[in-house]
């Protein structure tokens, strides 16, 4: 007889990449406390913070200038 799950588990959040950061213990403790208070995991809390910060940055400013068409210059 197969076991029946009571719930299907957590919903899939799409492709993810693991990032590691070393932060002071006091910062980590605050992250865990705030995440727990908000009812989320520390990982999701940090992912949301990163996404919020990155949404304010225009990454097109980091792209280099277009390559000059040297072969067409002559």
Largest sheet: none
Q: Which structural class matches the secondary elements?
A: mainly alpha
User: Beta-strand percentage?
Assistant: under 5%
* CA-atom Rg in angstroms: 22 Å
Order of helices and strands: HHH
Based on DSSP secondary structure assignment, what is the total number of beta strands?
0
- Low-pLDDT ranges: none
Number of alpha- plus pi-helical segments: 3
Q: Helix fraction?
A: 40-55%
Shape: flat
Calculate the terminal CA-CA distance, rounded to whole Å: 78 Å
Mean pLDDT: 86
Compact summary:
The chain has 74 residues and is mainly α.
Can you describe this structure?
The protein contains 3 helices and no strands. The protein has helices at residues 25-37, 42-54, 70-73. It is mainly α and 74 residues long. The model has no long low-confidence stretch (mean pLDDT 86).
Task: Outline the fold blueprint.
Elements (H helix, E strand, L loop, with lengths): L24 H13 L4 H13 L15 H4 L1
Helix pairs in contact: 1-2
Distinctive features:
74 residues; mainly alpha; 3 helices; 41% helix
């Amino acid at each position: 007889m197969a076991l029946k799950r009571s719930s299907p588990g957590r919903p899939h959040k799409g492709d993810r990449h693991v990032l590691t950061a070393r932060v002071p213990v006091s910062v980590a403790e605050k992250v865990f406390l705030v995440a727990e208070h908000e009812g989320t995991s520390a990982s999701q809390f940090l992912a949301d913070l990163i996404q919020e910060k990155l949404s304010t940055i225009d990454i097109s400013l980091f792209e280099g200038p277009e390559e000059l068409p040297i072969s067409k210059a002559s």
